[in-house]
Design brief:
The complex is a heterodimer of chains A (about 240) and B (about 425). With about 240 residues, chain A is of the alpha/beta class. Chain A has eight helices and eight strands; from the N terminus they run αββαβαββαβαβαβαα. Chain B folds into two domains: about 100 residues, Urease, subunit C, domain 1; about 325 residues, TIM Barrel. The chains are: A alpha/beta (about 240), B alpha/beta (about 425). Chain A: GO terms for molecular function: glucosamine-6-phosphate deaminase activity; identical protein binding; isomerase activity. Chain A: Homohexamer.
């Protein structure tokens, strides 16, 4: 399961690079995108369809029938959401979730206050999110979609592995809330504290609000982590 | 022919789009360019064949709106019954030069010639058999005697009227472009009738017109200038003549295109630069939009594409006359009426003209390519289906190397020519092995 947004861009670039080098094929990969706006055409420059097409799908060898993105223009939106949940089940569940978070700790469009056991559904966007997105719609708040379809926190919790990408000092407080405070539906990303296999990937700036001992602890684990992810063919 | 459901992709090339070359893939289905994102998400389809176009330029096929013949064929000297064959052999020969559509051009001829030939010179689709025929360009006989060039004087007519046009050409069904001199009596009325009532493109040429007359003609509906600088009054600073249309502010919003024969003989390179710099891409000029735009034409005659080199020999005389205009000589790439300095068409190919234009004007590859594709398509009002590789357009494609040498030609997404030994040749063969 993957996401749009600025955080995973670098990751997609790398995946495309690996594909072009012949190291990686997507022939047998199935993807589920975690959200999409309601009411903008799927070929709109700001739609997540367009994002995924431009940044990933057009560059790789994925089978289009293996790609799943919520249709924000479906006649029956709730049915679209239910069908999406079903198609995840039919695919055998999600192996890996990769996504970023908002500065308010939202995961997908699970805005602060969302249920931590929610499933795929229609969601009204928070004012903050709408205002933040206005820059993508010519600075015009009136053009920004006010609703989206999004997987729920519960949907993501079902993934066998969860990887959260957090970069930049503006996300530092959210990272602190995510891992140093308790479970909190006002910071929906904190739900993954209860997921057995969650990995937070962050840069230095994102750690600014963390305790020194937290940072030191995780930095101390880096040697082990690096061995886990190193190129197996390196030697 | 590729089956309807087949999707092919021209991958990794630099695609001509909106005046520049952009890294982009072109997807083609059922002979048309399709929007990849739409096909991917809505139809859940991906290409089943990829033409590797990396390090190549992918451009819309060239369109030649003025070509008198080539490969030994002279469109002004065909026999009734032999028209289709003659046109077809030129259509086939043009593929090698990246031309996917053209307007066979007939120079000043007698009414009986038009009557017998025009009905047989039909508009036709392109394919592996050759480039598409978009309709005939009749150059003359309503032209100035003083600027007749290589046209036979005995057939020139000086009185223009819709009636005279019909009496001369007979049926206008297959006529797409008429070159005429706007200073002739009755010209303005006839231009209006041709352009507005009959949907024919009126081009100004072989003319002694002053600027005022030329402006009047444009306002009457003329939209093209035939081989700018040739067969018209030379540019004079107090009356610039037809050339003055390039920067005229009295021609309303109608775009004015001018064709240039960029074979190295018809217009000096400095003059090409002057014309080009006046309006590289139809830029705004002052407060008025002046939208003159260059259209590359070959004005090629029968000797184009004939490789023997010697077309001066006695027995070649009839093959290389120009219509009824008498013998011509080809030397140093220039075609002249025998014993004179009068140019009589060219032996240049369209790809040569594109390369020459790029070199002479130091423009980008994209600008040179558009002058041979998008601009002629616009002149003919065909820009939705030809001249650009936008969604819904015909997949008439020329693949070139970075020096603008043609590597492969495609019509309706189907390979129709490739340079022997090139990568595009191998790609086309790989495609043919799988899909025929």
């Amino acid at each position: 399961m993957c996401s749009a947004g600025s955080t995973p861009l670098g990751m997609y670039r790398k995946l495309v690079e690996f594909h072009k080098e012949g190291k990686l094929s997507f022939q047998y990969i199935k993807t589920f995108n975690m959200d999409e706006y309601v009411g903008i055409p799927d070929d709109h420059p700001e739609s997540y369809h367009t994002y995924m097409w431009q940044n990933l799908f057009q560059h790789i060898d994925i089978d289009p029938t293996n790609v799943h993105i919520l249709d924000g223009n479906a006649q029956n939106l709730q049915k679209e959401c239910d069908d999406f949940e079903q198609s995840i089940k039919d695919a055998g569940g999600v192996d890996l979730f990769v996504g970023g978070i908002g500065p308010d700790g939202h995961i997908a469009f699970n805005e602060p206050g969302s249920s931590l056991v929610s499933r795929t559904r229609i969601k009204s966007l928070a004012v903050d999110t709408i205002q933040a997105n206005a820059r993508f719609f010519g600075g015009n708040v009136g053009q920004v979609p006010t609703m989206a379809l999004t997987v729920g926190v519960g949907t993501v919790m079902d993934a066998r592995e969860v990887m959260i990408l957090i970069t930049g000092s503006h996300k530092a407080f959210a990272l602190y809330k995510a891992i140093e405070e308790g479970l909190n539906h006002m910071w929906t990303v904190s739900a993954f504290q209860q997921h057995p296999k969650t990995l937070f990937v962050c840069d230095e700036d994102a750690t600014l609000e963390l305790r020194v001992k937290t940072v030191k602890y995780f930095k101390g684990l880096m040697d082990v982590h690096n061995k886990l992810v190193q190129d197996p063919y390196l030697d | 022919m590729a089956e309807d459901g087949l999707i092919t992709c021209y991958k990794g090339g630099l695609v001509l789009k909106g005046g520049s070359l952009v890294q982009k893939d072109i997807w083609v289905r059922a002979g048309r360019v399709v929007e990849p994102q739409e096909l991917f998400f809505r139809d859940r389809r991906a290409p089943s064949f990829y033409f590797d176009c990396s390090n190549h330029i992918v451009a819309p096929g060239f369109i030649d709106v003025q070509i008198n013949g080539g490969f030994g064929v002279d469109f002004s000297k065909l026999r009734p019954g032999g028209v289709a064959e003659g046109v077809a052999s030129v259509a086939r020969g043009l593929l090698e030069h990246g031309v996917t559509a053209f307007c066979p051009t007939i120079i000043t001829s007698g009414a009986d010639y038009y009557a017998s030939i025009l009905p047989e010179m039909r508009v036709s689709e392109g394919g592996s058999h050759g480039a598409a025929v978009l309709g005939v360009h009749v150059e003359g006989p309503f032209i100035s005697r003083e600027k007749k060039g290589a046209h036979p004087e005995q057939f020139i007519q000086s009185l223009l009227s819709p009636g005279a046009v019909v009496r001369t050409y007979g049926c206008l069904d297959n006529v797409r472009v008429v070159t005429l001199a706007p200073e002739l009596e009755g010209a303005q009325h006839t231009i209006r009738w041709l352009s507005r009532k009959k949907g024919v493109v009126v081009s100004l040429g072989h003319s002694m017109a002053d600027l005022t007359t030329a402006e009047h003609a444009v306002n009457s509906g003329a939209s093209l200038i035939t081989h700018l600088f040739n067969a018209m009054l030379p540019f004079h600073h107090r009356d610039p003549g037809i050339v003055g249309l390039l920067t005229s502010q009295s021609v309303g919003d109608a775009p004015v295109y001018y064709s240039l024969i960029v074979d190295g003989n018809h217009t000096h390179e400095t003059v090409q630069r002057i014309a080009h710099k006046a309006h590289p891409e139809g830029l705004e000029f002052g407060s008025l939009p002046v939208k003159t735009c260059v259209v590359l034409v070959t004005d090629a005659m029968a000797g184009m594409g004939v490789r023997s080199g010697d077309v001066r020999g006695g027995q070649e005389e009839s093959r290389f006359s120009l219509g009824e205009g008498g013998r011509v000589e080809v030397s140093g790439g220039a075609v002249r009426l025998a014993g004179t300095s009068t140019l009589a068409g060219s032996v240049a190919t369209m790809d040569e003209c594109v390369r020459h234009f790029r070199r002479a004007t130091a423009c980008t590859e994209a600008v040179a390519l558009e002058a041979a594709s998008l601009h002629p398509a616009r002149v003919l009002g065909l820009e939705d289906s030809r001249g650009q590789l936008e969604k819904g357009a015909r997949a008439d494609i020329v693949v070139l190397d970075r020096d603008l040498n043609v590597q492969g030609t495609f019509i309706a997404g189907h390979p129709v020519w490739s340079l022997p030994g090139s990568r595009m040749h191998r790609e086309q063969q790989r495609f043919s092995n799988l899909h025929t």
